UniProtKB/TrEMBL annotation:
The keyword Transcription applies. SUPFAM superfamilies: Sigma2 domain of RNA polymerase sigma factors (SSF88946), Sigma3 and sigma4 domains of RNA polymerase sigma factors (SSF88659). It comes from the Bacteria. Signal peptide: none annotated. This is RNA polymerase sigma-70 factor. GO terms for biological process: DNA-templated transcription initiation. Residues 130-180 form the RNA polymerase sigma factor 70 region 4 type domain. InterPro entries: RNA_pol_sigma-70-like, RNA_pol_sigma-70_dom, RNA_pol_sigma70_bacteroid, RNA_pol_sigma70_r2, RNA_pol_sigma70_r4_t2, RNA_pol_sigma_r2, RNA_pol_sigma_r3/r4-like, WH-like_DNA-bd_sf. Belongs to the sigma-70 factor family. ECF subfamily. GO terms for molecular function: DNA binding; sigma factor activity. Pfam families: Sigma70_r2, Sigma70_r4_2.
Length: 199
């Protein structure tokens, strides 16, 4: 582990323990990125900074739930995305275009988040390993339904016919799979749901 990596690791542990100096370190490192991210979608620098401030307040309040340094970035961008979408919803008055605009903005936000969070090859390999292990740990039938739905892009009716179960059973297995994965992959939840759980 190099000096910078060790320092960030120690700072992260201090942050988890509630040390304000550690929080300040991450605040200075990430605030401008989050504010710049927000301003692209709310078109108001002051409002973007307000949303970024809210993201950091929420990060501090939930610091015990963050399991890694990358988890900090994921949390901040996820929260900022949610607040940006809320801001757009509350400030668009032309209902005719509202849904299409929101869908377009949400796609842009998802792409921006993925582009903004930097993962090296080892981290991506580790993330892939965690995803695969979590899927493999699902109950057999639940795993089969999940793979057919998310990786083979099959419709519920097709899955029900192939597995000779009811549509309700397919829906129940998908709900169960997503609930289990949400718990196991909570630190990378937003990224996981963009990469493998998004329709």
């Amino acid at each position: 582990m190099n000096i910078n990596t060790r320092f960030e690791s120690e700072t992260f542990e201090s942050f988890k323990k509630g040390e304000e100096a550690a929080f300040t370190y991450f605040y200075h490192n990430y605030f401008s990125r989050i504010a710049s991210f927000c301003v692209q979608f709310v078109y108001d620098a002051d409002e973007a900074e307000n949303l970024a401030q809210e993201a950091f307040i929420n990060l501090w309040e939930n610091r015990e739930n963050i399991d890694s340094i990358n988890g900090i970035q994921s949390f901040l961008y996820t929260y900022a995305k949610s607040k940006c979408l809320n801001f757009i919803r509350h400030n668009k008055v032309k209902d005719k275009f509202k849904n299409d605009l929101l869908n377009h903005k949400e796609r842009e936000l998802d792409i921006e988040v993925l582009n903004s969070i930097q993962f090296d090859t080892l981290e991506l390999t580790e993330l892939e390993r965690i995803i695969n292990e979590s899927i493999n740990d699902l109950p057999p039938k639940t795993r089969e339904v999940f793979i057919k739905k998310r990786f083979e892009n099959k419709k519920n009716a097709e899955i029900a016919e192939e597995m000779q179960v009811t549509l309700k059973a397919v829906e129940a297995h998908m709900t169960k799979a997503l609930k289990i994965l949400k718990t196991k992959l909570s630190d990378y939840l937003f990224l996981i749901f963009i990469l493998i759980c998004n329709n």
